[in-house]
Amino acid sequence: MAYFSAEYGIDESLPIYSGGLGVLAGDHIKAANDLDLPLIGVGIFYSKGYFQQRIREDGVQEHLFPRIDPETSPVKPVLASDGRPLSVEVPIADRKVVLVAWSVVVGRVTVYLLSSDVDRNPEQDRRLTDHLYPGDPDTRIRQEIILGIGGVRLLRALGIQPEVWHLNEGHSAFMALERIREFTAEGTAFDTALEAVKASTMFTTHTPVPAGHDVFGLEIMDRYFGDFYWQLGADREKVLSLGRIGDGFNMTRLAVTVSTMVNGVSKLHEEVTKELLHQWMPHIPMEDIPVASITNGIHLGTWLSPGMKALFDEYLDSRWEKNLADPKTWIPIRSIPAPALWEKHLRNQSDMIERLGLPIADSSVGKTLIVGFARRFATYKRAYLLFTDLERLDCIVNDPSRPVCFVFAGKAHPSDQPGQELIKKIVEVSQSERFKGRIFVVENYNMEKAKALVQGVDVWLNTPVKPMEASGTSGQKAAVNGVLNCSILDGWWCEGYNGRNGWAIDGATEGSDQERIRADSAALYGLIEHRIVPLYYDRDEQDVPAEWVAMMKESICSLAPVFNTQRMVDEYWKRLYVPVMTRGRYFTANGLEVAGRVAAYKRFIRDNWHEVRVGRTGVTSLRVTKIGLTMVRFEAEIALGPIWHKDVTVEAVGSGKNGIWKTKLTLSKSLDNGIYRYEGSLFIDSDSLWLSKSNIRVVPVSKDFGNDFEMELAAWGDT
Length: 719
Description:
It is a single chain. The protein is an alpha/beta fold. The chain has 21 helices and 28 strands. The chain is globular.
């Protein structure tokens, strides 16, 4: 499997990540190593990485870009057989750019990182791979050409022939165009090449936030691909149609088009992704959009504190690290004496205070509730939710008998002015007299500081706009260390929260932004005042918050076996990698026989689909009194033109209490002029179902399709 990602958070010594996507990619790589899976990574070696953050006294974020020194980083140059740096070329507009590669070895897994910082390139091209996520679209598309097209060419130069191509976000989707070009250069027709590529490609989308989906203007596409279209054996319009939405070329749309499987990163995100794709295929009900989900997890070996690991080693089975996903592995956590678990947590807290240089006295450890909020300062994550009522916040943090501290950390993208304003406002509040020593802002958030925070705070706070948090993983890192989550019911927390392992803010989804802010902030204040603070300060004779520690145990036992990358990557292997590998082999066997057949079939269907029409329909019902059911019968006359009746599925589809319902109709009679009569029935417990909105749908099908809606076609009756 070739795993393509624009960023990797493998270790702080290699700062080529900006946030959750990169850290997730790094954890994915580590888990693949742990599970001994045949996976390689492909990315970019950003010579200046993501920016280093400095926060001035006035709260203004400054951006520093120190160059990464390969000598002190865990990277090595990739060499050719002659001992010189291996290089490939990619087309950038009207010129060729030379790329070299660096490798990072993570156990048995290698990640290859491309760089344009080569003497043979002019200065402007050497700088293309300087920064992660540049703000201007020209540099962004150049980087994505380097990642997608350059990544394929590098693997070919290394003699690596992946059977699964995994797009981790749409940034690398140009990879599919290069793979199509490889086939067409050997004489394969474009449509056949597309089917062969699609069969072995999968796509993971990570965000519903518009900024996370790159869109390039068509004039930019022409500038960079004007000489590339014809190399794919197709004209401009056909190539652009793979990703075109209106007047833009959408990289997420391209990734969906060229992938045989698409997945989101939580169950809620699956639904959100279906809603997004439904905008592009409105004739297919949202529930039928072919999207799966594999909920994110974390690499416990990376994020678990040494002290907590030692405690687990003492109480859990000796092979616990090999069986993380088994709930039985974690049962002994409940037998750890409360004082022992609490002592380890307080040690983590002391270490955090020291590592982050927080001006909190040692005497306050365990005597002051510390809440952490650390993530990218994107506005949808709503770091400001805590500050909507400063008088109420004042009362919370400055209660002399039950004080509370808040620690904030995170970066705002250099182009994200609203995010930077948030940081400035929080810094200003932290410097006001009543909040000094109660609210802290840690600058230059990175993996090392993240470890300190998720291991050392008492509560992990998360307040995004629901449902904008696709998954999130920072709360999972906190949970395995015994830190309790207080979060909007979004992303992974919808699946993780059980009422006993933390606190849920049931985020408002209706009303204006201001109304939602007022509702969510009021719920947050209420939780802190009436549930979190009282529980923390309720101590036994040993000064241990016994009920709090019981909740810590519940959190670890209920969350650790589910939200880890051992479970996550094992799911990827069984549910996606193996099926995609099998499908890819099937489509390319015998000289692309199946790919060619499917391409020809799809071409025939598209050319003739305009003749498919739903004609006269009828619905009748008969009460079956003995068992209290109603039998609803459907009839429909369907015109198929030259399309064979066995190449379509005809269904009655309607909306019910639990989403859509559907029942298949069968061919009952062949009429004249390519018209067929279909019939079917459905038993229901009341007549409300068929009286609701229902319709007849015709969909093209094939045993070689990955799903019933692969062609994104459907013909409906008039309603």
